Amino acid sequence: MLVSEKIGQFFVASDGGRDRLEYTEYGAGDAWVVLLPAELTPRRMQQPLAHALAAEGLHVVTLDLLGHGRSDRPDDPHAYSVTEFAEQVVALLDHLGAPQAVIGGVSLGANVALEVAAVEPDRVRGLIVEAPILDNGVEASIVVFGPLLLTARFLPLSVAVLRRLTRPVPRGIVPFWAGVALDTCDQRAGALAAMLHGLFFGRAAPSSKERRRIRVPALVVGHPFDPLRPMADAVTLADELPKGTFVRARSAVEWRLDPERLDRAAVGLAVGCWKGSRRRRRTGA
């Protein structure tokens, strides 16, 4: 099924003025779904799932959070935190005129989706959470992203060289996921260091107490053998959420390379979240 695509942008206020964020819309209608990528990756990583959801009649939006993809990349660490990212998602909903949406995300995007549900529960219809980084992933995050932060701060030339080498490669001649990887390498040292600094020292996710108060339907997907995003965090989260359903991925890359099974689960969650609303509107008419 062919799905329409439209690129848009909006602005959020910041200490430095205004920051521009870019997004892509798939499909149409008032059954909204917002998808967020993993840390450092562009919104394009969510394109396959966006197509699968839009093909079922949902209006899907993928967003480049600040510091990601084609959105602005300020050098101020205060511009980056899960709370700031959640505010950007709410600003996107306001910009689109969407009262509510199903919010989905991977890794950092999963944490942001949870934060939106915690701080703005009336705006969230449901959650699609893949591989959240919670208590069990803290040490691995430090091990992985700590050296990257130091490299960006003290060896910025290495970040610039990687960007210079990968940016000229035409994305149209490489496989889709290779193109996403190349886009992930398109970093600027100052912004990269600022974002990692902000994420390390800012709020990382809602507390367990807050998560237990999230009462929307939620699909929680856990990765086996993924030290950065331990499956124990996903299992714990699914147990904490009153309407959480846990699905174990066969591998950390199943949803990227063999997505049919998990796509069906995501479609079922998102369609189910909007089905009752559609029925009530038809009855009222």
Descriptive overview:
There is one protein chain. This protein is α/β, with parallel strands linked by helices. It has one domain: 3-Layer(aba) Sandwich (Rossmann fold), CATH 3.40.50.1820. The protein contains 11 helices and 8 strands. The chain has an 8-stranded mixed β-sheet with strand order 1-2-4-3-5-6-7-8, with helices on both faces. Helix 2 packs across helix 3, helix 4 crosses helix 5 and helix 4 packs antiparallel against helix 7. The chain is globular.
* Tally of DSSP helical segments: 11
Q: Tell the overall outline.
A: globular
CATH third-level topology: Rossmann fold
Distance between the termini: 29 Å
CATH homologous superfamily placement: Alpha/Beta hydrolase fold, catalytic domain
Number of domains as seen in the coordinates: 1
Could you give a short account of the major beta sheet? 8 strands, mixed
Q: What radius of gyration results from the CA coordinates?
A: 18 Å
Which strand order spans the largest sheet, edge to edge or round the barrel? 1-2-4-3-5-6-7-8
Uncertain runs: 279-285
* Mean pLDDT over the full residue set: 94
Q: What is the CATH C level class, in words?
A: Alpha Beta
Secondary-structure content class:
alpha/beta
Strand content: 15-25%
Topology order in helix (H) and strand (E) letters: EEEHEHEHEHHHHHEHEHH
CATH architecture: 3-Layer(aba) Sandwich
Helix content range: 40-55%
> Tally of extended strands?
8
Q: What characteristics describe this protein?
A:
Rossmann fold; 45% helix; 8-stranded mixed β-sheet; alpha/beta; 285 residues
